[in-house]
Amino acid sequence: MVAAAVINASVVGTPASAAEGPRPPANLRVTSAGFDTLSFAWSRSPDDDGRGADFFYQVLLDGALRSGSYEPSVTNQVSSPAAVSASTLRDAVAPTTPRNLRADAVGLMWDASTDNRGIGFYRVFGNGQHLFTVSATEIGFSFMTDTYPVVRHGQTLTVTVQAVDLTGLTSGLARPLTVTVP
């Protein structure tokens, strides 16, 4: 499982001409959090009074400059930072169990699983042993026998499939299917 990242953000302004620098922007807040993203908003620095001074706000994440935004601009000194801490979303929803596992003369196939974040890959098991990992919802018998010496022509296997999402959460196992590898 991947742990949720903690991101500390600071938004600072740099004055075009003020000797002591602007006061920090106020009301720094997280406006949305995704699995891999955080969005921030803030109120303008009290020194950005709209009288033609250009301010540029620098956005720092974990102390490193990541982006900037003109909200009327800033260029020389850096003010005291206004800070907020936030976490990305934690994925707690496992993918659905693969359904309709079936075989034809060419290989195995199943209906795709669904997940709130996305499916990363599928694990295919034979006789209770993990055989291989695939990203598609099908696999050919010729690939199985050519690539994995544990799978042989004429062998009877009880196979099942498990989905793994982009966070590493796993589904239940598909209903087992007994096949003879051509």
Defining traits:
rod-shaped, disordered N terminus, four-stranded antiparallel β-sheet, mainly beta, Immunoglobulin-like, 182 residues, 2 domains
Report the C-alpha radius of gyration, rounded: 27 Å
Q: Which series of helices and strands comes N to C?
A: EEEEEEEEEEEHEE
Largest sheet: 4 strands, antiparallel
What's the mean pLDDT score? 74
Helix tally equals 1
Overall tally of domains:
2
* Approximate helicity band: under 10%
What oligomerization state is this entry in? single chain
Shape from CA axes?
A: rod-shaped
Number of strands: 13
Strand percentage, roughly? over 45%
Q: Which spans have pLDDT < 50 for at least 5 consecutive residues? A: 1-19, 71-79
Give me the side-by-side strand order of the main sheet.
5-4-1-6
End-to-end distance = 37 Å
Indicate the structural class. mainly beta
Descriptive overview:
The chain has 182 residues and is mainly beta. It has two domains: 6-87, no CATH class; 99-180, Immunoglobulins (Immunoglobulin-like), CATH 2.60.40.10. The protein contains one helix and 13 strands; from the N terminus they run βββββββββββαββ. The chain has one helix at residues 141-147, and strands spanning 6-14, 26-33, 38-43, 56-61, 64-70, 82-87, 99-103, 107-111, 119-126, 129-134, 138-140, 156-165, 177-180. Strands 5-4-1-6 form a four-stranded antiparallel sheet, with no helix packed on it. Mean pLDDT is 74; it is low at 1-19 and 71-79.
